[in-house]
Amino acid sequence: MDTFAIEGHQFAGLDRNLDKVRWMAGYPFQVLSWPRSACRYLMGNFNAGWPFERDYLNARRTRVPLIKIWAYDHLCLFARGMPMPREIRRHR
């Protein structure tokens, strides 16, 4: 096995707990000590109320190198915005 892919659909889509999304996305390299470059996060997109953008941004904050989207047909069906959202940087 050369890569580790993990998903946390329960946390984003059902629990609406984005802190757990961030924890789950970083779990392979922060807890299990896999090389970060070998880790992936599989995010969901199963209904129109899914916190799609926040799920993506929270996973991205862990610096996981690849975020995959499950259910591409739903991406089109729910007319999700593309490209993916980016962090807004605010300097003081």
Beta strand %: 5-15%
Largest sheet: 3 strands, parallel
Biggest sheet strand line-up: 1-2-3
Quickly count the domains.
1
Low-confidence stretches at least 5 residues in length (pLDDT < 50)?
A: none
Give the C-alpha Rg: 13 Å
Helix and strand run: EHHEHEH
Q: Termini, distance in Å?
A: 45 Å
Integer average pLDDT: 86
Number of helices: 4
Secondary-structure class: alpha/beta
Q: What characteristic shape results from the CA principal axes? A: globular
How many beta-strand runs?
Answer: 3
Query: Which percent bin holds the helix content?
Result: 25-40%
What does this structure look like?
The chain has 4 helices and 3 strands. The protein is of the alpha/beta class and 92 residues long. The chain has one domain (4-77). A 3-stranded parallel β-sheet has the order 1-2-3, with helices on one face. The mean pLDDT is 86.
Topology:
Blueprint: E1 4-7, H1 9-14, H2 18-30, E2 39-43, H3 52-60, E3 66-69, H4 72-77
Parallel strand pairs: 1-2, 2-3
Explain briefly what this protein structure is.
The protein is of the alpha/beta class and 92 residues long. It has one domain. The protein has four helices and three strands; from the N terminus they run βααβαβα.
Features:
92 residues, single chain, globular, 3 strands, alpha/beta, 4 helices, three-stranded parallel beta sheet
